[in-house]
């Protein structure tokens, strides 16, 4: 299991700093703290770590790579095959969004870019640009065809905008049906793309900065220095004032 600590499945996992980024892929779990510390765990065991340094704003995992987006504009790459760091690349401004696309491309966003940059890791070079406006966080369906980006709302491309106010954190289920959206008011929202249904989760005490979905579990990392685990049973239908559907 991904979220076992000392033999126990955790519901809330405390850390020494704010959780700025989360990533899940197969048996891998990546955790980044706002102070720059990074942990990479496999089946719950710590296998690689990076001491505190330049703040890490974003993190992405594929079956082959760990990518870290830093405050100073660097994207650091670690090969999961041998846990060795490989040459990365740089954007202008801090890297707030990272997600892996189909065919090994990595999508990256920065507040200074009015769109999303695509990089082919095999050649370490840019391979495209999506003009979707400024996007603070990114999520993609692994098999391609769907990319979501959040800033003050969530844009599910090519679907169009989904108006969910305050969305600093974003994750997508493998099939692309569910979006998990972390909010500045400490709520975690689940949005079902096919129907527009919206579910609300409460439990954090600070702004949610990161979220991830895998195997029916949703993880969220917060300014309150904890990672919380959720299933859909932990969410409720929002009241009339909270909005039953996204628009």
Write a concise keyword list for the protein shown above.
247 residues, 4-stranded antiparallel β-sheet, Methylamine Dehydrogenase, Chain H, mainly beta
Can you describe this structure?
This protein has one domain: YVTN repeat-like/Quinoprotein amine dehydrogenase (Methylamine Dehydrogenase, Chain H, 7 Propeller). 0% of the residues lie in helices and 52% in strands. The chain is built from no helices and 26 strands. The chain has strands spanning 4-5, 8-9, 12-14, 19-25, 28-33, 38-42, 45-50, 56-61, 65-70, 74-79, 84-90, 97-100, 105-109, 116-120, 125-130, 137-140, 147-150, 154-157, 160-162, 169-172, 178-182, 188-192, 197-201, 208-214, 217-222, 226-230. A four-stranded antiparallel beta sheet has the order 3-26-25-24, with no helix packed on it. It has a four-stranded antiparallel beta sheet with strand order 4-5-6-7, with no helix packed on it. A hairpin with a 4-residue loop joins strand 12 (97-100) and strand 13. The radius of gyration is 17 Å and the shape is globular.
